[in-house]
Amino acid sequence: MADKPKDNKERDWDREMREVDKLLAKLPEADPMLGRGPLGGIPTVRMTPGTVGGGRDVAGTWLKLGLGLLLGVGMLVWPYTHVCGAKLFLYMLGIAMLIVAGGWTAMASWRARQGWAHLLALLLVWWGLSLAGAVVLPRVGYAGQQAIWLCPEPTTPPPPPVAPN
């Protein structure tokens, strides 16, 4: 009990820190600069590098991207008219799926650290948003021309007059 100092001012902090440094140096992955930060005795925070996903993550990312790109090209060459009505809403559903596919691929490529896949996924999202703008803006009055959401009911011609007998 007599070994311990009674006051913190009496402690030899330099000696205790040297002992801690010796113990840290014995660790298997010891950093020789540990405890010697850029500001003197302030230790630096050691960041562990992010792990890159395995081959399965990379292949899954590129598969998602390929499907998204096929959908994007399919939206470009959409074979049906999409002026109004149910065909317009199906086209808008395809646009929504394109945006979701691009976002899903962007998140997967971010996790897998795939830069080119991430860039292409963001381009898919941009392509979907631009297609959505081309469909929605004329129908809400923002663009110069006006477009309609629902097709007008077809008018039936009046029956031909019946000749008197």
User: From the helix content, strand content and strand pairing, which structural class follows?
Assistant: mainly alpha
Tally of helical runs:
4
Low-pLDDT parts are: none
Secondary-structure element order, as H and E?
HHHH
Q: Quick one: overall form? A: rod-shaped
DSSP strand content: under 5%
The share of residues in helices is: 40-55%
Could you please describe the fold and organization of this structure?
With 165 residues, this protein is an all-alpha fold. The protein has a domain of 85 residues. Helices cover 51% and strands 0% of the residues. It has four helices and no strands. Helix 2 runs antiparallel to helix 3 and helix 2 runs parallel beside helix 4. The longest helix has 27 residues. The chain is rod-shaped and about 130 Å long. The N and C termini lie far apart (133 Å). The model has no long low-confidence stretch (mean pLDDT 82).
